[in-house]
Give the backbone structure.
Amino acid sequence: MARTKSPGSKTQSYTLPKINPDLMPTGSTLLNLACSGHPLGGWGKRRMVNVIGDSSSGKTILVLTSFAETAKRKAFNNHRLIYDDSEEANGFDVPRMFGDDLDERMESPQEDDEGHPKYSDSIQDFLLNVDEAIKEPCIYVEDSFDALTTDEDGQVVEALAKERRTGKKQAGSYAMQKPKIASMMFRKICHSLASSDSILIVLSQTRDKIGAGMFESKKTRAGGKALKFYSSHEMWVSIKETLKKSGFPIGILCQVKVSKNKLTGKVRVVDFPIYYDYGVDDITSMIDFLLDQKWWKISGKNITTAHFDGFSGSKQEITQKAEEDDTFHKLLIWNTWQAWEAREEGLRLNRKRRFI
């Protein structure tokens, strides 16, 4: 508990809600709120999350930031943090960007005889790896589903080659193998997640949707409808803006649309910066949100902050203070939570409850 003042008001108390041990932090306070309504956690245990986005839209950095925060949570001390890099493309300096705690705890699903990471190549590998991992509590990230082949892919190549040589279409629906396997696989996995306190996070690449109508989404993802059907959270990640310094790209303004939400039922969109050498900039995103919601006021470069004992300063000064002062940082989260709640309250229907 702490006490603070808003300009011209009496001293009031504030407190953040207790950490919910069933919620995994997403790496962004705004995304936590969009997913669960709780400022300190967003993705639920015993559930599957699907993060879909274009290449270089920040999916991997977001998930690794989430892992880094989770590594510091007591509620997840007994969870294995498994990163299945099927694309084998992760070259981030994990200790520098995400901390020693994550570097020590993050592991691959398997290792070869020489102790090197061994990732899933096929969808069948993935099923076996997940099935084995979730026998005990874990958070399993698959990066990405698109990189997984099927054991039948060799048959597809052979059939297509034969069609080209003979001019005759070969029997069989090889193109449907992956969606069919995915549907059976996720049904089994989600049943096991519920009994092991585990979380499965699947990253997917967007694909252009052929023949999309005027009012339809122009993007889709691989794997058929299984990912959408079995996910408790589905979110689409896109690049809203490229962030530059001295004319050089240093990051992106990432936009996330939570399009499926089985925790609150709400569809929400949030923005936050992601920097290539830093990760998710949670502090700046909260400041921008508070300004956008008129919770705080800005004149020139000076920001007047409510509920901060009259503290005011530039965005850079507020950011620096939040990074150096833990109490100030918690106040920033509390303000963001209160502003979010105030907006949500304004969106409620003014109707008599139907069921009492």
